[in-house]
């Protein structure tokens, strides 16, 4: 079964709920290596997204995702707003006019979202950023597609790979963003951006059973 516009809206609602629940946790992570505002910023951004969803009933998936992107850019502070905003805007452009997403659509959407973040943040794998969760998630999705798994299994593989990628940031020394100012002292701490990326993918896997 494809991901429908209803699934997408439910995912965004669930994401807002999950990020609100994890606001303090994300902020604690960010306090160790950043500006201590990631949880607050992500919560504020997705609460703003949630408030806009009723007006998007009946819209196509591309329109919904582009609206999410512009909302995040305008409401999320720090680096996260432009990065997540770019990801959703690119995803929206890739799904313009669609009312459901098949496996190939989902993977194409994830590809352009990840590439958008890479381009905007100038980040690569292994630099202790959200890329360390998202690149493994994309690789897992591609592998699952080759194995001809269904969409729910692909989403769960994505989620699990993102979780492993998130955990892999703990021993890394940050070379990008605010955390890079700490140098070697950034090692031993989990990256907050990788954590919020995992939370978003987990929310999607959880609502699409």
**Quaternary form:** single chain
Order of helices and strands: EHHHHHEHHHH
Order of the strands making up the biggest sheet: 1-2
CATH topology: Serine Threonine Protein Phosphatase 5, Tetratricopeptide repeat
Q: Kindly provide the radius of gyration, computed on alpha-carbon positions and rounded to a whole number of angstroms.
A: 16 Å
Number of structural units classed as domains: 1
Distance between the termini: 10 Å
Average of the residue pLDDT scores: 92
Number of distinct helices: 9
- What is the fourth-level CATH superfamily? DhaL domain
CATH top-level class = Mainly Alpha
Largest sheet at a glance?
Answer: 2 strands, antiparallel
> Which residues form runs of ≥5 with pLDDT under 50?
none
Output the structural class. mainly alpha
Helix content: 55-70%
Strand content: under 5%
Shape, principal axes of CA atoms: globular
The CATH architecture name reads Alpha Horseshoe
What's the number of extended β-strand segments?
Answer: 2
Please describe what this structure looks like:
The structure is a single chain. By secondary structure, this protein is mostly helical. It has a single domain (3-207), classed as Serine Threonine Protein Phosphatase 5, Tetratricopeptide repeat (Alpha Horseshoe). The protein is built from nine helices and two strands; from the N terminus they run E-H-H-H-H-H-E-H-H-H-H. It has helices at 5-21, 23-33, 38-52, 61-75, 80-94, 103-121, 131-146, 151-168, 192-207, and strands at 3-4, 100-101. The protein has a two-stranded antiparallel ribbon with strand order 1-2. Helix 1 (5-21) runs antiparallel to helix 3. The longest helix has 19 residues, at 103-121. The radius of gyration is 16 Å and the shape is globular. The N and C termini lie close together (10 Å). The model has no long low-confidence stretch (mean pLDDT 92).
């Amino acid at each position: 079964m494809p991901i429908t516009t209803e699934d997408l809206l439910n995912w965004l609602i669930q994401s807002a709920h999950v990020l609100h629940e994890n606001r303090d946790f994300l902020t604690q992570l960010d306090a160790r290596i950043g500006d201590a505002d990631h949880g607050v910023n992500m919560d504020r951004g997705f609460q703003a997204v949630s408030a806009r969803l009723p007006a998007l009933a009946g819209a196509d998936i591309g329109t919904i995702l582009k609206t999410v992107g512009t909302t995040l850019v305008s409401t999320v502070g720090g680096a996260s707003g432009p990065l997540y905003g770019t990801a959703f805007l690119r995803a929206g452009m890739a799904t313009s006019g669609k009312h459901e997403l098949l496996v190939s659509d989902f993977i194409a959407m994830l590809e352009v979202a990840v590439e958008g973040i890479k381009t905007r943040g100038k980040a690569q794998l292994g630099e202790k950023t959200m890329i360390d969760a998202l690149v493994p998630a994309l690789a897992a999705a591609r592998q699952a597609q080759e194995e001809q798994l269904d969409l729910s299994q692909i989403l769960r593989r994505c989620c699990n790979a993102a979780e492993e990628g998130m955990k892999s940031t703990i021993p890394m020394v940050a070379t990008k963003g605010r955390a890079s100012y700490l140098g070697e002292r950034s090692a031993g701490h989990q990256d907050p951006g990788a954590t919020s990326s995992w939370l978003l993918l987990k929310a999607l896997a959880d609502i699409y059973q």
